[in-house]
């Protein structure tokens, strides 16, 4: 019975990256032997055990066989005769198919160390093609390690998998899980570049894939291409370590530009409402969580209004707050402002340009929050007890006055 550290922990240690989690493989053992040593069994599909002291996961060395389409169509086999190399060959990339024994020796049967040095993601074997999740994993690793490139033969294999319909067998929850993890990496645009190169993005997110090649007015978008712009927006959000819902909103905010008739290019009049509809559809299809969905829909619908915020009248701003439910959910509105700022700065030459709209709208929101609706309602009931319809009118009027004072202060100080 021998124990090895495998996979990402070995890769990250060789890269000099902090190791967060360690995966262990046990060779030459049976489930009965693991239980006899006080390991706790937890695996469903194949034997995985928790260490009696550290509670880290230890998996018995295993092989697998494809039996049905999709990432769940596998039968696993474990016994004391499965070797370490047989376990490693089923892994996705050579850089993830290395092991380290208890003496610190690196076992590298498939050239993972060489590919680390050359900064290449290369599949270990033809078994890669049996699991479509591996396409998403390669793309996610590209977002984590943006200096790495995908080997030509691996990209060709992923293209063949897409053509064979393997990607279509992915369940929505798993697709979103991997996309969300990639969005939280250091350079999310690399994930989408990899997915586009192999054709997977067109299958998973055709609404996003459609943005490349769609022009925008050069005056406002020196980068011109809408797909390029959206990737710049997402990377800006990542550079500033913003939360997942904001990154999701950054990714989806301009989907409507992909359906603008070419004869209207480079203008995209009314794309915000089109974007909001498409975001709703995407979130429903991929079962995207409510916090990401709600912020993404709101950002798609309102980012143009936020860009014009300095021109809006006080009453229009209050209507915007009402439409966005900002009185009950102020933080979500502030997150939408942040996503809109990412949209502004995610353009060639705009990264360091001011975006006063964010602070301006936050000041207006803070002012409107000082209005005591309950107090106004009580006064109105005392003065006009038979006219309850006047209460919301009075509250709105007070809010408009508060916003007007706040924005006038800003404009006067400027």
Which terms summarize this structure?
414 residues, two-stranded antiparallel sheet, 11 strands
Account of the protein in words:
It is a single chain. The protein has 19 helices and 11 strands. A hairpin with a 6-residue loop joins strand 3 (40-41) and strand 4 (48-50). It is an alpha+beta fold and 414 residues long. The mean pLDDT is 93. Helix 12 (244-252) crosses helix 16 and helix 14 (290-307) packs across helix 16 (330-345).
Principal-axis shape? elongated
- Helix count, DSSP H or I runs of 4 or more residues: 19
Strand order of the largest sheet: 3-4-5-2-1-8-9
Strand content: 5-15%
Helices and strands: which structural class? alpha+beta
First CA to last CA: what distance?
Answer: 74 Å
Helical residue percent?
40-55%
Biggest sheet features: 7 strands, mixed
Average predicted confidence as pLDDT: 93
Low-confidence stretches: none
**How big is the Rg?**
27 Å
Compressed to H and E, one letter per element, the order equals: EHEHEEEEEHEEHEHEHHHHHHHHHHHHHH
- How many β strands by DSSP? 11
Helices and strands in order, then pairings?
Elements: E1 2-6, H1 8-15, E2 23-27, H2 31-36, E3 40-41, E4 48-50, E5 57-60, E6 62-66, E7 74-78, H3 84-88, E8 99-100, E9 106-107, H4 112-118, E10 120-121, H5 133-144, E11 149-150, H6 152-163, H7 172-183, H8 188-198, H9 200-204, H10 206-209, H11 226-239, H12 244-252, H13 271-286, H14 290-307, H15 314-323, H16 330-345, H17 357-369, H18 373-383, H19 390-413
Helix pairs in contact: 5-7, 5-8, 11-12, 11-16, 12-14, 12-16, 13-14, 14-16, 15-19, 16-17, 17-19, 18-19
